[in-house]
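Collaborator request, handled under Task 6.
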Amino acid sequence: HAKVAVVLRACKHAPYRSSGNRWVIDAKGDLMQTWSIDMPTHILQTPQRLWALTVGLAILLGPAAVLAAVLAEDAAAVGKPKISRKEVFSCEFKTELSKQWTTVGGKWERQDGYLKQLDPRPADPTKAILVLGDNSDDVSHDVSVVAKLRLDAWKDGEWARAGISVCSDPTNGHGLNLVFHRGKLNFMHDFVIWGSSVEFPYQPGTWYWMKLSKKGGEVKGKAWRDEDPEPADWMITWKIPVAEVSGYPALVGGSGGPGDDICTVSFAQCEVLLGEAPFGYYTKKPRWHETMAASRAALASQEAALSAKLPDQTGTLLRTGLWKSLRRDFSDRASLGQMAAEQQDKIWTEDWPFDQVEVLAQRYAHATGAGLTEQARELAANARTDT
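Structure tokens returned to the collaborator:
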């Protein structure tokens, strides 16, 4: 038995490929419907149609409706644990880039079925960033990126680097990277610090796979030649000095420095996977404090889930991300001023949101009174009478 989860979208075609025990149909479009079947199932593609064949039933999935179908083995039937990570994006660059892609720096073009970075100068860094959703925190805490890449031209030096990234800012490209650099597989945080590394011999013209995984404040990485099996263990691990960073998955195309020690690179495939715990707690409402209230319950449950799964991850990162999203969506002066005061006072009480001035006044009175208690004791102990 197998379970098929099918996501229907409007698209012109739906070429599919297999990845382990998963089937991925690559295309693009707007979400129309999601449904699933739980019975013996097979996938069949004819020149103009894609079908899901089940016992006594043939379901037409194409030609203009299917984005992705995932075929996962039934864990109970085969005695294997369920997949703990879910694939949220996959592409092979054989068609036009989907609307989620944005580039920062360099000259990026899709040629011959590959996404190529042809000239990094003068930018630093150069990245193709995958903007998945409106809230970068959803893809920043427990995320993995896998990509197949080839170094087309390479002159070793400070600015020659290529690889993959997480937590990349779509405006300036700054993020956490795993790159080939000076004969090594190296972590780096753009414009902050170089991280741990391991010797890795690479050469132009050869296809490699690279995998980067981030959980909380730790990143892990590995790389291998296309014709070799994936290593069972991670090659390098790095505790991130600046843990409160968020952004989107990305492909790193190098940096354009003042010298000629630069590189060009081609990418053939890219996949993004998220961890088991959901992070979609942010719910936008008409006003910022209504948005805060709608997001608090989900945020609290996610912090509890994180503390169980990631002991080194505190609630600070998620709360910082919530404030960041609020400032982005409510950027008027009045809202920013109110949010600054609330964040500074660190008042997270049960009476969110406040609807009346009296509620706000009472909350601040309690906070102020608690803060002045010790000072009041000192004044009472040192009281004197002037004559």
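The cover message to the collaborator said: "Helices lie at 75-78, 288-309, 316-329, 333-345, 357-381. Residues 1-84, 348-355 have pLDDT under 50 and may be disordered. Please let us know whether this matches your experimental observations."
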